[in-house]
Every structure is written in structure tokens, then in C-alpha cells.
């Protein structure tokens, strides 16, 4: 008898017993401050839609116009027959938005890291990576023939020690870091990272997926630190604060030329629909034109984080609109998320392998569409449920 897949059933059961599975929740409306999820109107604290653009009528209008001009699907890979003028317009807008010579869109943010990182270095080179970098960075580096070294999270002394060692052994070095770390909501010390990289003749690669629309008056972490001309590879996402879909890369023209000619995720995946390209371009323009939207987001974030802490929850290392409520055990975090949902607050538990075992939390993500009433109601529920479960 040949082997079968029954072992996967047992693996899943063990994961579920540990509280390490992910329930799928069906939205029945657009993603917004108060969507309907599984038949219940809830306050949305689980979305990356920081600037409340996912359902913005201006993005809808741009998408509909693109459908009328170019149809629904791209028809092919961008490298073959799926490339339109909309892509050129989007790429020019990316470059302008990120303050670089050129820009490029990818099918997803994951596809940027998984497709580009394997191509940038060769055997005899090394990636130096923060220990809490996103899984897409980890996967991209694993696919590379280059070696990798990991430094303690945001520990600049350890980064310098690692770079000193790497400089003695390797030809080329790229320091890779998230801009905003997606599980804890803290910000990379990019100014110090860039200084150390230059001292040890290393390049820098920043994943800014949670920084666009949030830091640097919306332009991301390189704008926050004034490093637009210094960071070698700036990647990011349209799928979060921009309210659209896909990933982006910004840098010098030769970097972009190399990227789309070597990234298999770009070359061998269908281009995303023309409507997406048009909506993404419009989103960048709105972020650029409306800095007040970003400032309002921060006001709401600061209020929510302060009040959540006053209730008794630990918000960890949060410095951004990602505001975790630290719990510890996965089963306890899952129970908290379940009770929050029952009381009208949609905020998911983040458990292993997204975070280390024993560091499960609820990840709250604030968006500018939440009213003061929404935030206060969510905080009331947090206090009631937290006391009920002996978490505060």
C-alpha cells in the first residue's frame, strides 16, 4: 500500500489543539470600519487598511475606467503580453512617491521578496537579516545561493558585530530589514542601520509594506529618516495603507531593470488586472495629496494605544498603528479573539508560527475610518472581556 495523506490530518489536529490554526472569517461587505463578518456587524481591528482607502470611491472610479479601457484580465505575464500604459504610469508614480529614479510593481509584496532576494547575491556573498523579518524575506533568502546571518532584533551592537565578521569573509553584503515589524508594530532603526551598512561597505534592503501610508507623512520609512537616496532597495505594498493590491520596488533605474529581468515571480506570474494598476496609482496620489489623513491616523492610534494600556493590556513594543495586546499562550489568545468577536470587535489572534510560542497576542490595526465612538466601544469590550478572562 502506498503512503497517503492521513499524517496531515494528525498534524492539523495537533496544531488545532495548541491553538495554532487560523479560522477563516467571511466578510459580507466591503472592508471598512464596521463591516459585516459572518453575519455580524463588527468594529474592524484586523485589517491593514490603515488609511481607509480600500473602499474609496476615487479608487473605484479609477478601476472602473481601466476596465472599460483594457478589460478585466491582463491576458498574460507582464513580460509577454500583459503590459499596458497603465503599468508605465504606475511605475512613474512609484518612483515619484518613493523619491527614487525608477519604480516597479509586482503581483504581491511577498512576490518582491521571494522573487528578487534570490537574484541579488551569489555564492560567496551574504545577507544580514533581522531575526524578526517577515516570512517572505526569510523564504527569499533561503532561495538564494548566498549565505545568511541573523542579528538580534533591532540590536545595533549585534548588527555591527555581525557586519564586522561578514566583512572579513564575504564579498558582497546586503542588510535586510522590515521597516515596520508587522507583528509588534515597532520601527526599524533605519538611520543607524544605514550608517553601519555604509561603514562596512554593505547595501541595504528595506521591506516597507507597513510603512507606506504611515511613516514619513505617508511616503514610508525612508522618507521618515530622509534616506530616499541612500537605501539601495525599497520594497513595499499597495495592499495595506494604499487600499489596493500588489507589491512595489523602488530604486535606481539599473536596479529596476535587473529586477524585472531576473525575478521569477515577476517574469512567470500573470500581470494583475488593469483595474488594479489604475487604482494603485490613484491611491499613491491620494496619500501624496492628503497628509492630513496620515496625521489623523496617528491621533487615533495614540489614543487607542494609551487607553488599551490604561485598561491593563501590554502593547509590547508598538510604535505604529499596529497595536498588539500581548497574551502569551496561543489558546488564551484564541479565546480572547473569540470573545471579542462575540461582543462585536473583530481582532484576530496572532499565534505560532507567526510569532514565537509563548508570545501570542491580539494584533489590533487602527485605521482612519474608525470613529471615536468605534474606538471607545472597542476599548469597553476589551476591558469587559479582559476582566472576564482574567487577563487584566
From TrEMBL:
UniProt keyword terms in alphabetical order: Aminotransferase, Transferase
Cofactor dependence: pyridoxal 5'-phosphate
Keyword Endoplasmic reticulum: no
SUPFAM superfamilies: PLP-dependent transferases
InterPro entries found in the cross-reference section: Aminotransferase_I/II_large, AON_synthase_class-II, PyrdxlP-dep_Trfase, PyrdxlP-dep_Trfase_major, PyrdxlP-dep_Trfase_small
Domain Aminotransferase class I/classII large per the UniProt entry, residue ranges: 41-380
Gene Ontology terms for molecular function: pyridoxal phosphate binding; transaminase activity
Signal recorded as keyword: no
UniProt name for this protein: Aminotransferase class I/II-fold pyridoxal phosphate-dependent enzyme
Naturally occurring in which organism (per UniProt): Natrarchaeobius chitinivorans
Amino acid at each position: 500500500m502506498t503512503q497517503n495523506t492521513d499524517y496531515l490530518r494528525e498534524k492539523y489536529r495537533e496544531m488545532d489543539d495548541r491553538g495554532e490554526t487560523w479560522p477563516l472569517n467571511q466578510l459580507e461587505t466591503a472592508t471598512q470600519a464596521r463591516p459585516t463578518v459572518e453575519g455580524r456587524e463588527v468594529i474592524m481591528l484586523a485589517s491593514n487598511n490603515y488609511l481607509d482607502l480600500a473602499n474609496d470611491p476615487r479608487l473605484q472610479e479609477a478601476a472602473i475606467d481601466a476596465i472599460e479601457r483594457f478589460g478585466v484580465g491582463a491576458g498574460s505575464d507582464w513580460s509577454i503580453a500583459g503590459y499596458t500604459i497603465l503599468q508605465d504610469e504606475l511605475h512613474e508614480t512609484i518612483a515619484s512617491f518613493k523619491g527614487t529614479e525608477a519604480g516597479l510593481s509586482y503581483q504581491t509584496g511577498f512576490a518582491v521578496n521571494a522573487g528578487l532576494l534570490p537574484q541579488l547575491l551569489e555564492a560567496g556573498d551574504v545577507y544580514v537579516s533581522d531575526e524578526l523579518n517577515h516570512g517572505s524575506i526569510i523564504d527569499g533568502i533561503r532561495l538564494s545561493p548566498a549565505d545568511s546571518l541573523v542579528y538580534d532584533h533591532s540590536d545595533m551592537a549585534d548588527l555591527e558585530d555581525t557586519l564586522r565578521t561578514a566583512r572579513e569573509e564575504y564579498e558582497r553584503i546586503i542588510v535586510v530589514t522590515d521597516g515596520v515589524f508587522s507583528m509588534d508594530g515597532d520601527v526599524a532603526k533605519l538611520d543607524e542601520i544605514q550608517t553601519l551598512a555604509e561603514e562596512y561597505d554593505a547595501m541595504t534592503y528595506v521591506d516597507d509594506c507597513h510603512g507606506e501610508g504611515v511613516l514619513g507623512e505617508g511616503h514610508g520609512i525612508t522618507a521618515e529618516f530622509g534616506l530616499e537616496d541612500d537605501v539601495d532597495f525599497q520594497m513595499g505594498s499597495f495592499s495595506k495603507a494604499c487600499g489596493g493590491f500588489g507589491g512595489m520596488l523602488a530604486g535606481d533605474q539599473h536596479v529596476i531593470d535587473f529586477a524585472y529581468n531576473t525575478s521569477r515571480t515577476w517574469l512567470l506570474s500573470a500581470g494583475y488586472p488593469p483595474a488594479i494598476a489604475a487604482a494603485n496609482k490613484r491611491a499613491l496620489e491620494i496619500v501624496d495629496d492628503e497628509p492630513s489623513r496620515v496625521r489623523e491616523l496617528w491621533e487615533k492610534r495614540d489614543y487607542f494605544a494609551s487607553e488599551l494600556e490604561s485598561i491593563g493590556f501590554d502593547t509590547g513594543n508598538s510604535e505604529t498603528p499596529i497595536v498588539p495586546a500581548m497574551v502569551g499562550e496561543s489558546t488564551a489568545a484564541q479565546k480572547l479573539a473569540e470573545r471579542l468577536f462575540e461582543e462585536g470587535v473583530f481582532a484576530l489572534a496572532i499565534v505560532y508560527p507567526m510569532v514565537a510560542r509563548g508570545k501570542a497576542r491580539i494584533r489590533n490595526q487602527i485605521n482612519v475610518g474608525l470613529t471615536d465612538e468605534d474606538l471607545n466601544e472597542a476599548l469597553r469590550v476589551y476591558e469587559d472581556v479582559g476582566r472576564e478572562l482574567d487577563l487584566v
